[in-house]
Design a protein that fits this description.
Largest sheet: 2 strands, antiparallel
Distance between the termini: 41 Å
Radius of gyration: 23 Å
Number of strands: 2
Number of helices: 9
Number of domains: 2
Order of helices and strands: HHHHEEHHHHH
Length: 266
């Protein structure tokens, strides 16, 4: 791409700053309305809720802008850029005390702290979905039509043999690092999905793509794994395989092994 990444980020930030200014004016108008028309006993709570609503909105806008700009410049959806953005969002949320008005308590109530945690969690999920979409798009582009081609649920032609080959390449890395347990679990599922007569061709393609992503993630060093995306992919896999009788039993055994490897409950 001709435009330097730093310049693209600067343009994105300028648009965010513009939207932030508009939302700040709306927040101040709402707070002034509360101060004029709300009894003093309820005023503090309502002002805090209005500021929380403002915080949630600016975080949503930040994520939405990244999705919009990322469609035109995939560099913005790279793992390091997503993590940098999430760190920025965390700092914004952690700085909530600066958004409170005079007279409000210096120590936030547990309920408010919980709401701040929810804002972070929703932002993390939204960003993980952006990364997931990027990974899916990359896998679709990399699928070269050689021998066994099927159409997945999005209408993209995917080469099954190529996907299986990618999976086994990642599994070799796992075995070489001594992670035989998860390698065997993914290998068994891959074989079962490929041979399944209960999965529609498009569902088989989607499932193999998910397994390829899990195998690739497992082969990476733990700090480089996008666990939020892994969980999303795992959940989708569980739903898909629940309707395939000839794979469901294998999933019942191998699925929890994969979840355990990544450190979350099946």
């Amino acid at each position: 791409m001709d435009t330097p990444l730093s310049e693209v980020l600067a343009i994105e930030r300028r648009e965010y700053a513009s939207k932030l200014g508009e939302l700040t004016k709306e927040r101040e108008t709402a707070i002034e309305r509360i101060r004029r028309g709300t009894p003093s006993g309820a005023r503090q709570f309502q002002e805090t809720q209005e500021r929380l609503k403002f915080l949630q909105k600016i975080v949503e806008v930040r994520v939405e802008l990244r999705g919009e700009y990322g469609q035109n410049d995939p560099r913005l959806l790279a793992a390091d850029q997503i993590e940098a953005l999430f760190s920025e969002i965390e700092r914004t949320v952690d700085g909530f005390t600066k958004l409170r008005g005079p007279g409000e308590p210096s120590v936030l109530r547990p309920r408010t702290l919980g709401e701040l945690g929810d804002i972070k969690a929703r932002a993390r999920t939204a960003l993980d979905k952006l990364v997931l979409k990027t990974r899916w798009d990359e896998m679709k582009k990399d699928a070269v039509s050689v021998s066994v081609n099927v159409q997945n649920s999005s209408g993209t032609i995917v080469n099954v043999n190529s996907l299986v080959g990618d999976i086994h390449s990642h599994l070799r890395v796992l075995r070489e690092s001594g992670q035989d347990g998860v390698a065997v679990a993914i290998a068994k599922l891959t074989d079962a999905v490929k041979e399944s007569s209960d999965l529609l061709a498009e569902r088989q393609s989607d499932t193999l793509q998910s397994l390829a992503f899990l195998a690739q993630s497992a082969s990476l060093p733990p700090p480089q794994r996008q666990l939020g995306v892994v969980k999303t992919m795992y959940s989708g896999l569980a739903l898909a395989l629940a309707h395939a009788a000839d794979v469901a039993q294998i999933w019942a055994v191998c699925g929890p092994q994969i979840a355990s490897f990544f450190g979350f409950a099946a």
